[in-house]
Amino acid sequence: MEKLDTDTTSEKKDRIWLRIWQTSSVPLAAVLLAALIGAIILIVSGANPITAYAALLQGAFGSVSTFGRTLEKATPLIFSGLAVYSTGVVWGWLGWRFIWCYSRRIKNLYGSP
C-alpha cells in the first residue's frame, strides 16, 4: 500500500523551520552564552563590552584586508580540527589512541607550555 502525501505546503514549511531551529538552536545558544559571559568579565574588569565587541568585529571583519587576515589565521586551526576529527572517525579507537600517543610524544620532546 502506498502512503499518500496529505501534508499541506504550510505544514511542510513548518517542519522545515522546526528542523532548522532544532539544528541551529544549540550552537546559537552557545555563542550567545559565551558573549554574555565575556560581557560580564569585561564589565567586572571595568571595560565597556559594546566597545570591546565592536572593536573585535571591526578588527576581524572591518575590511577585505582584515577579513583575509582572519581567514589566513583561522584556516590552519580549522584544518587541524578536521584532521583530528577525521582521524578519530575513520580509524575509530585506534585513531584516537594514535592522536593521544602523538600528543604525549610532542609534550615529552618539547615540554608543556
How would you characterize the overall build of this protein?
With 113 residues, the protein is an all-alpha fold. The protein folds into two domains: 12-62, no CATH class; 71-113. The chain is built from four helices and no strands. It has helices spanning 9-44, 49-61, 64-91, 93-110. The mean pLDDT is 85.
Mean pLDDT: 85
List the total number of helices.
4
Q: What share of the residues does DSSP label as strand, in percent?
A: under 5%
How many discrete domains?
A: 2
Distance between the termini: 66 Å
Features:
mainly alpha, 84% helix, 4 helices, 2 domains, 113 residues, extended
Describe the SSE topology.
Elements: H1 9-44, H2 49-61, H3 64-91, H4 93-110
Helix pairs in contact: 2-3, 3-4
Question: TL;DR?
Answer:
This protein is mainly α. It has helices spanning 9-44, 49-61, 64-91, 93-110.
